[in-house]
Fold these 2 entries.
Entry 1:
Amino acid sequence: MTFQMTKGMRAALMAGVAGLALGAASASAETLRWARVGDALTLDPHSQNEGPTHTLNHHIYETLVGRNVDGTLEARLATDWEIDPEDDTVWVFTIREGVTFHEGQELTPEDVAFSLDRARTTPSGMAALHAAVEEVTTDGNTVRVKLSGPAPLYVQNLTNTFIMSKAWAEEHGVEAAPNFAAGEEAHSIRNTNGTGPYMLVSRDPEVRTVLRVFEGHWDEAPEVTEIIYTPISEAATRVAALLSGEVDLVQDVPVQDIARLEQTDGVRVVRGPENRNIFFSYDMTSETLASANVDDNPFAKPEVREALALAIDRDAIQQVVMRGESQPSAAPLPPFVNGWTEEMHEYSQPDYERAGELIREAGYENGFSVDLHCPNDRYLNDEAICQALVGMLGRINVSVNLVSQTRSLHFPLIENWETDFYLLGWGVPTFDSQYVFDFLVHSREGAYGAFNGTRYSNAELDAKIESLATMTDLEARDGVIAEIWEQVMEDRIFLNVHNQMLAYAMRDGINLDVHPENQPRMWSVTFD
Amino acid sequence: MLAFIIRRLFQSVIVMLAVALVSFSLFRFVGDPIASMVGQETTLAERAALRDALGLNDPFLVQFWSFVARAAQGDFGISYRLQQPVMELILSRLPATLELAMISGIFAFLFGVGFGVYTALKRRGWLSNAIMTVSLIGVSLPTFLIGVLLIWVFAVELQMLPSFGRGDVVPVGDWWRTGLLTQSGRMSLILPAITLGLYQMTLIMRLVRAEMLEVLRTDYIKFARARGLTNRAVNFGHALKNTMVPVITITGLQLGSIIAFSIITETVFQWPGVGALFIRSVQFVDVPVMAAYLMLIALIFVVINLIVDLLYYAVDPRLRVSRSHARH
Amino acid sequence: MSKDDTTIPPRPRSWAYRAWDSDVAYSFRTSPVAMLAGLVAVIIIAMAALAPWLAPFNPYDPSQLNLMDGFTPPMEPNAFTGNTYWLGTDNQGRDVFSTILYGARISLFVGFSAVLFAMVLGITLGLIAGYRGGWVDSLLMRVADVQLSFPSILIALLIFGVARGFIPPAYRETMAIWVLIVAIGLSDWVQYARVVRGATMVEKGKEYVQAARVIGAHPIKILVRHILPNVMGPVLVIATIGLALAIIAEATLSFLGVGVPPTQPSLGTLIRIGQQYLFSGEWWILLFPSITLLALALAVNLLGDWLRDALNPRLR
């Protein structure tokens, strides 16, 4: 849509659009101009395991199973899925019939098997989610996935694994996911052939991507027939674009602007919890800390960890830093993830006096000082949250030196164990606690503990975590999860702040639900 | 003349190599590219393997040499982030930046010279003082704030001009896509061009004013007046003409810094040019793009410098002697 | 130039009298714009220098902060705590007035130090290049070319990157301000060097320098005693404008995500934080720091303008 000159013209145009929508709904062409902070990195279906990339690709490609806005699974290209009753290490997927790719090929089980193989082979970014897969075979209109052991939750790993055409991949030499080190561009990075509700019309990375509805899609035709996707990195510019009517929908709304946008005529905001928790963590194992001014490791002492828990004022962070747009919680786990309980979620009110006492009891009569590492471009108001904590800890004589920097400098510190105290956010794409334990709680060895910056290592807990992967009795498994959480909470490995909330702002008359993984689905948009 | 050009070309190559060396040696401090290339599930071993495959573990000189050898053939590799050939990426973004730089350069030059002449001729007028003071406001606030304020006033409140992007673009030739030929493209240019050109405009205006004031007091102008030439002929025919050599020099040199400063303007206005590409690349530690961008900036600067030198040479014969002396 | 370096005064007078009686001072006294700009600059600089005594709060002391005081509008009681602040509070509950004073202190410190650094470096290299000539001159000017081909903002970004690599993490935050000074200073020395080099080349051919050389004066003495005073006029003008530029550059770097830590904000950092609240209604977080920066930079720029005209006798 071209830019509108005046308010009057814009009003007339809006009226025209509204009139079209009211009239013949099926014949109307609805364009949705969609803006968010960053672009998809690639259109290759398996190259990157990254939120914005998946979000855009979900419109072009489809997965076997999808994630509903309430967190449950829905049938996409698989109409049915179950564990083989005779072999609990095999998952069986029944493939939807009558599905065609944008270029006209029929979807076959062979395409599915090919795609799963492509996704689990390096350099695919999705490989880690399919590490337990041993073999993928087809049988009639089903696909059988053989795993190294029983994997009752494997289907949860499939919500972002897209299916592509084997013939198309072979034709264009993209049988494997693109390799960073290859030094040349693969065809699949800017060209697509999916089964999804939209086809790619044009792609100018980081500038503009245009999608048009795919007439041959198996599902109901969406109301939005054209999508113009524009990344706008500056928050103020993004909000300005919505206020001036240049875009219809803004996905990453700065929390401070939500209230103003809600009061603006012609704009509405929808919000919901995101599957992402924000927490602080610390090196609680080393003998000494590199950045502390004391000879031992204060975080190794339970009193100090308790003092931190008593000093953090989650309600203040929620009300002031997050403008009410967060769910404060003591547990580093969003409410819809398996393993979450009301009890874990409850947090205490700050008690600075007691916290100060605990610091003294731990032997720090004059307090201590330590560096806090924080990203400043990754999570909602990440830097401001860290700053708020600096103030709170200042009140209990813990002097915190804040180091906030860009994500590419921040995250390696955690990976390389170069930080004593840090902020991290964690989403749980499998909607199961095991994902949290694998990466954040298990000692760092092999594929485990990559983001365990605490150096926490508990052999008993490690064994329990490893057992989760192959337990088929889900009730017993939930029991083990609860045991692990109890220990984690008791040891105060995490100083959790809150669960992030998502907000989408849009022109009045557009209806769209917040997706817990921040993957809004434009094919579900309806117009008033 | 030929010897002069050859010497300057040779020096330009040295400058380019130095730029490459300096920028390349700095990248290792910008951050770890691997962290932004892989998902959170990637194991430490896989990360190490990727680092190895990209040659990031090679000795510095090996990395530098392979960079220079490939860059000399115009191959800057593929972007770590967007997985596209860097050359293609930069070429596709360059028109946006060049058009913005050109328009803001023209804006700065026209208004700068106009205001400069006016304020020099009407030195004590209230309008002159007003222009002088208001133009200073433009250089007394950070560019990003001016951009955001312009968006607020003209896009949000008045809804007269677009707040972001380039509008509709149409292809001209193989890879150049222009926004100058569409209505929305031209409208989109106005705010970023003003934001970017404001500083240069003030600079040119002050320079023209100062030069005009100096020239106007020279005997040669006094003589022209005594001869009974009209004010108009004296002011524009003689005085302005004589101020143009330094003004052209500065404008030319400023063109390079306009392109560089477009980083901030492009970020604020989501202008799809190379500056915005660069700053995103810094955030993601996209080394191939960063390296190519810095080389491009250096190349543009070297070329502009060369052209300015040659213009000097052509415009003002007196300079031939002193300038070649100064270059020894 | 002014009287005192050309003629011997008939009677020894105090330094203050001579300064007051000089042409420059006369020009200052008769220029209302310069007087006003000088007044504004002096007030802001004095308030910044005296911040610890003038400011009602110390915004850099986290233990004094209460997050619940955040976003208090000017002159209105906070909805939770009931506290009232003259210019309101920012997103962390810091008193905006105190933060501006402390922020201006940092900005001015960075600005002055960066200019001083650039000036010393530029003058030294300019004198050497101009006086020695030959390959030294060629080399220095080529370095200047390389330097110029990197715009100042890029140089500062890169220096920041390097510093991050060299400085141990524990010192990074305390070093940040010095890194900023070096970064801004390094990106600015070329201007001084070019001016000084040009003037030196002209001066060294003059008879008095030749004479000094003939009587065997040491080159350094010639440079410092005879040539330097003659280039100080233009250098001062560049320095004044450079001060304003350095303060703005610090703000711009803050926008690009490098600069002083957010717990000890400069004026530029305050503006960067404030512009996030342009649409949300908390105008005071942006407005007051911006006005302060504008007033400061404008005053310094106007002083620079005036100085340029005052030191150029042909324009009088």
Entry 2:
Amino acid sequence: MSASAITLSGVDKFYGPIDRGVHAVKNLTMEIAKGEIVALLGSSGCGKTSTLRMIAGFEEISRGAISVGGRKVHTLAPVKRNVAMAFEGYSLYPPLTVRENMAFALKAARLPKSEVDAKVASIAKLLEIEDILERYPSFISGGQQQRASLGRALIRNADLHLLDEPMGQLEPQLRAVLRGRIKHFIKERGLTAILVTHDQTEANALADRIAVMEGGVLQQFDTPDMIKQRPANLFTGTFVGEPPMNVFEAYVGNAAGKISLRLPDGLSLDYDHDAFSAPVRDQLLNRERVVIGVRPYAVRRSKEGVPATVSANQWLGDQTHIAADFAGGSLVLVEHDRTRLELGAPINVSIDPKNLHVFDQASGNAISHGMELA
Amino acid sequence: MEHTSLLERILRGIALTLVVIFFMFPIVWIFMMSFQTNETILRIPPQLVFEPTLANYTALITGKLTTVSGTLDIAFMRNLWNSVFLSVTSVAVALLLGVPAAYAFARHKFRGSEDIAFTLLSFRFAPALLVLLPLTLYFQKLGLANTYFGLIWVYQLICLPLILWIVRGYFEDIPADIEYAYRIGGHSWFATFRKIALPLAGPGIAAAGLLAFIFAWNNFVFALVLASADKQPVTVGALAFITSSGIQYGQISAAIVLSITPTLALALYAQRYLVEGLSLGAVKG
């Protein structure tokens, strides 16, 4: 990794008076390397857009510091920060055509006209909006406006590209194609980008690293793989992954040479002591209650497993999602074959200990992932 | 295609005709009166057929009013000029002050911003008569009575709140992100105000300006009390036609025709422009 492109240190955002207003972003510290694509992922109101707007300079930060390329920028006007941004609401200039809107972003750079035309043409090709370049924003669809807005941001050669929900309005097929192209475009030019999204597929596909946010707090900042495999806490575990991770509260028991995780309804998952590594075992046995999580893909049907009752069975064309009543809650499992199970059919499920995520019951922080401590 | 029966169309035509007659009749009647002498106007019963004369207009333009009791000097052309000057200048000043203020109120929430905006609006609540006496006394003390400067100042009571509140609404309707997009592209906030906010709010500013102009033009009571003959607008000047030898209906009508012509022309011209401009972005510009 090369020098950091942007650093946020201890950034707080209050809407209203400091310490009394709405605390939208809490003590956010992040470092993003040059050439990296980072996704801010979270549900509505988690502070991800506030973060983006603070970086752009449309919101003041209440505390902390932001530097772009080693330069403290949080006191500078947006114009001096050298960042480009695609807005969620597109924000195209109504009296200008799509072409003019995109070329307009280059005005401050004072390039010769031929170069501007070439840049507009190549971006338009990338985003498949060549045929609407001469149209006005109010005459094109939302998806086209969004691509024009994205183009207006990508055409610039800024230190940092901020993309707020850049593909929310696009059709799924087009979205998949553009994701690949945009990632290639950004990587090829060595641009640094931060995108805000609530779509985890988009975050997974585009980002080198994902910052999961909730309640204004950065929950985890890691590669998509690591977030999937080693969620830092219960929130990340259940938020990322589709269908979401199954979680159950369990009492830890140690009897007859087995570690048993006792679930409601008198059910119990029993494992041999050596199913866990020594440190994980110690952590488990030190606790009375834990929360266990398992991804739907890791739940297996087996003869000796714990009983459950099928409550829904859905064939999606390439996989089956089976929901079952299990331990006073609901358990979802995914199978790759078409499974014919009637509603109410009894099944038995087992969970391999290496697929088990264990979280602290009080704090929600991860204790272990399979054999390893978190 | 819209389906309307013949009967429906006939009824609608009749209704529209009635409305147009109701609203247009006074204007048409005044227009006709302006080409008649007092004698033909006061005939009983009134008649639609008459011999048109330009005497009323001649009298107004030359400033010589001939009545049975002699010739009077009237300053109608001067009044008309005063009206134009006072209204145009007042609206210009109000736009200059009001548009940036409206932008500030729309975009920046600061301590007391709502209170200040409301106070400005409240100028329009108070009946003019309420402030007239103190205002007259102040103006006499300050030497502002019977000056254009003083009148334009007082006219701000009429124009400024109107422009501020209408234009503020238009600014608020512009998504802030459009301005942000421009600013992040390397432009100062002033350039953003000039190049993005002003053009997008243009139709609103024009509408507010037009309305303020009409209100200023029609003002009577401030001008009556605070201005003497040489600074009076037409609204007050028309009083001169009530002479010792009777009311000069012909000249009053001609004066009215002349004094509504500028506002009418402006409204008709601006209406076309407003309709075009209101369909934001739909037209090249």
